[in-house]
Amino acid sequence: QVQLVESGGGLVQAGGSLRLSCAASGRTFEDYHLAWFRQAPGKEREFVAQISRSNDATAVAGSVKGRFTISRDNAKKMVYLQMNNLKPEDTAIYSCAARTLTMPGYGYWGQGTQVTVSS
After folding, report:
1. Which residues contact 60 (CB under 8 A, 6 or more apart)?
2. What's the confidence (pLDDT) of residue 55?
């Protein structure tokens, strides 16, 4: 298993930037594909970005493309989400998630960190 703990959320004005971090512990970090999801009040959780376990493939949702970047540091067991040009609609709880190749979906989740973007 892997345990995930997010940090880096906060309050920022529109147009600003934040960098979210997710620290992992437990099994071999390189075994896991990693992702960021978010959930805004009254809305369903949505995919934000993902990165492969070998760090050679990434994908981001269309709503954040060109503004958000996902990265990982396998040596430090960390995954990051750099968020630039933030908009009020980016306000949500952001959670990191992990899965192995054999899992049908993301089965390990952090507790989430709040991001609030003021207009």
Report:
1. 48, 49, 68, 69, 70
2. 75
Is residue 55 within 8 A of residue 73, CB to CB? The reply is no
Distance CA 64, CA 117 (A): 14
Q: What SS3 string covers the chain?
A: CEEEEEECCEEEECCCCEEEEEEEEECCHHHCEEEEEEECCCCCCEEEEEECCCCCCEEECCCCCCCEEEEEECCCCEEEEEECCCCHHHCEEEEEEEECCCCCCCCEECCCEEEEEEC
> Which 8-state DSSP code applies to residue 90?
G
- Cα–Cα distance for residue pair 40/107, rounded to 1 Å: 20
The band of 39, judged by pLDDT with boundaries at 50, 70 and 90, is very high
Considering only CA atoms, which of 9, 86, 79 is closest in space to residue 50?
79
pLDDT per position as a tens digit, 73-96: 999 999 999 999 999 999 999 999
Distance CA 35, CA 57 (A): 12
